[in-house]
Design goal:
217 residues, mainly alpha, globular
Length: 217
Amino acid sequence: MSGIVRWELYFELALREYKNTYHGSILGQLWITLGFGIFVAIVGSLYTFILKVDAETYLPFFCAGIINWRFISNIISEGCMVFQKSRQYILGFDMPFSIFIYRSLIRACISFVYLFFVYLLIGIIFKVEIGLSVLFFIPGIMLVLLNSFWIMMILGIVCLRYPDIGHVINSITILLFFITPVFWPPDMVEKYKYLAIYNPFYHYLEVMRDPLIGVMP
């Protein structure tokens, strides 16, 4: 945990990675927002017809769910590679390993911010009434970030020793996406509601999503 005080270092490392990723691009990091906005508009509208639900209620639910799921899945995928991607720094410099975890968490937060602009637009268009419940989003995301630290530490160590486990975990994450109520409300499948109740990913998702759609978590 000693690396937490060196915030300038892991912020700089995270920002540098983003700049390198979109180097030479005209829109740069805005491609994240643009691409996600197109995805939400097309897929969200499609599921509105498939599920036969009101777009005014469903699209904010869908958008908030996808944003928070991407945040969680980014943390998992980054955790699997956190020490492998940092090999050159680990071998070349004397610094706490926790710095690389903080860097990955900052990257996940930056991605979240770019995606969140799409949700703000959706909220304005459909006049989402959030009220005081939105204040619970802050402790919600802090709870997820605090848990993410030890999760990334374990994943980073295990996947560094056994690289194949990272591929297994990423495959499981994709599977969990479909059985976690990300784009379908659990009340719609009452018979299979246990898929949400006994799914830890669902509760991490809800503690961040509920405040954004006006529900007290």
